[in-house]
Request: fold
Amino acid sequence: MGCGCAERRELSGPALDTALLEPYLAEYKDSEAKGGLIAILQKAQDIYGYLPEELLTYIARRVGVKPAKVMGVVTFYTQFRLKPAGKHLVLLCQGTACHVNGSAEIEGAVRDALGAEEGEITGNGLFTYTNVACLGCCSLSPVMMIGDKTYGGLTKDKAAAILKDIEREETSG
Amino acid sequence: MRVTVGKGSCGIAAGASEIWERLRAGLRESGIDCAVAVTGCIGMCYLEPVVNIEDGAETLTFVKVDAGAADEILKRLRGEENDAARYAIRPEDVRLLHSQRRIALRNCGVIDPECIDEYIAREGYAAIETCVRSLTPEAVIEEIKTSGLSGRGGAGFPTWFKWDAARRSPGGPKYIICNADEGDPGAFMDRAVIEGDPHAVIEGMMIAAYAVGSGEGIVYVRAEYPLAIVRLEHALKQARERGLLGDSLFGSGFGFDIRIKAGAGAFVCGEETALIASLEGERGMPRLKPPFPAQKGYRGKPSNINNVETYANVPWILRNGGAAFAAMGTEHSKGTKVFALTGKIAKGGLIEVPMGKTIREIVSGEGGGIKDGKAFKAVQMGGPSGGCIPEALADTQIDYRSLAATGAIMGSGGMVVMDESTCMVDMARFFLDFTCKESCGKCPHCRIGTRRMLEILERVCAGEGREGDIELLEELAGQIRDGSLCQLGMTAPNPVLTTLRYFRHEYEDHIRHKRCTARQCKPLLTYAIDGEKCTGCTLCARQCPGRAITGQVRKPHEIDMSKCVKCGKCADVCRFDAVEVN
Reply:
């Protein structure tokens, strides 16, 4: 699934282009309207990058459930974001193995390197970092994941260097 | 000749994709007609990236392959003089691989997970064909019963019993669900199995479907495992194209198909009733059992839920017979178990061993002992629901009953090894932080109780522990255990209870003496500069956020502890090892 960077499209103004979501609403609605709610929300987040409130209301109306119910589902699962994120979502693993091998220090280094707190977008709009439960690459701990790529054996310097490299690529290209 | 590169998530993180590209490009340039195939994780994560060259009966394995090593391997393939032998796997590592007994992992790291023919060549889909053509569903369940296979997700419930219950339940359609929501921090067995051998899981589900009488399967996979989802989708597509999934398997009239549901990030969804709620698009909250999923599961219909490793064992059992599986292991725990060895271990990775091995045998054998020659302190088994087993009990046999007697559980197979530099109070705090965040909120004892316990542990780690805190933790633990509905809540206090049982003195040290012997709880540490070692380079003073370090250039510096914020930066940056941490 990843963070959906590749499919992200910028929203122009406050009005959302809900047409982008139409095929998925149709796909999931008939067979399993209720059961498909999470899948619809995942697609919506892939498309819009996050889940603004007006979109949730719209989905609720189309699926035929109360907006409160949609909100309940969105806030239950850690994958869903109500606020926009940077272009690159940095997932910092906080699993047991990473914890034992110093993930707290890596978080400090990432926070310093980005100059942003967890969940915030960096000033240049490039990054948002967030702590996640185990990414399942424990033998390479501590690890982080950016897009679909996992970086293992991190040190404070290595983590900062990886972020710098991405930033350089973005700003030069 | 065949060249393979191990491209599981861990291999890719270690740079396997670049090596794969380099080998491909190199061979193409040299005009050598040899495909570079992909395999899953062989389990030796500490040796990634791994490259294999199969030449007739001989297989050469190269480890920790970087760009330079890849070039040497290319030279070897071209028949030129080369230095590739330098990267060959060492005999002791080969021995570690052969000391295992790989059933669930039988194809991982051996076959190309994206190629169904390689799975079929290793007797893949033969078991389901036998079932459909010549066995009754009852006979299939009987074979599983003989094998003694029990749920590998943690609870260890007999698999045949679940199948039989779902089979006997009236009503339909019935569902076969695969729990791949591997949420235990420190566990990655299921990810490796799906990435390395997706068809084994599919075939296992097919056999379960035949036994239970189901036409539809669902795999609930964590969204954090993108590669596993891709590989599984690919495998399902191939199986459909071959007619292995669909309306009428092997012309029998028995039809079955599988779809994937990506999870959205909630640990509690590993609990089967919560998983079903999540499949139905609800908040993933557990409900009271009974009715069990076998009676009333997905969409209120009989459903069978097993985890990935359980299903991956099934085709092997049907091919080799339940008795062959039951011949391995102990009296009460049959077969093998996959473990994810991580933490402060020298040779971290994935291993599969027969039940009955001791923890010490695994840690010092397959695990290669403790990293950096430090002392083995404890092993955490079963994740947040499990517990810490101290070194003194490391001769405990791995089976469901022996582990439960220590206060830990088998769990899904995460084994996080800890050394002398791990603080057990901090570990307990880490797990409570996890369960507190992951509590679904339904039961007040779990929702509020874990928070209260976490607050106490945070206080203790911050040097503000009080007399009576230990007793309060124990009281809360008992209430949470008794007052929670699901296993997440009931077992949430386990990490605290086991660390209190085996490492009570560490709690007392923190509370009474404000001391953390493992030097992990920063607020309890004091910093001082050794005047003999300090060169007065001023680096620490410039980095100190509290401006607590003073001194003249080229003269020993001093730390004013009243201003120190205990961030530890001075000790990190010092190049002369002059900052003493106590």
About this structure: Residues 88-172 of chain A form a domain with the Glutaredoxin fold (CATH 3.40.30.10). Confidence is low (pLDDT under 50) at residues 1-13 of chain A.
